[in-house]
Amino acid sequence: MTLKTRSLIYLVGLSVVDVVIPIPILGMILIFVVLQKPPLFLKVVRELYEI
Predict the structure, then answer these.
(1) Residue 39 in contact with residue 24, Cβ under 8 Å?
(2) What pLDDT, on a 0 to 100 scale, did the predictor assign at position 51?
(3) 3 touches 40 (CB < 8 A)
């Protein structure tokens, strides 16, 4: 399974959880990524866009 497919599956799963639970999980993850810039996220972005 490619990284792009795996990322899409995780995002769909998080979207379903976001609909079931009224806490904005995706928004909180986005804020975390923007503020902290974790190395894992940067690695995933580089692999997805092949920078």
Answers:
(1) no
(2) 58
(3) no
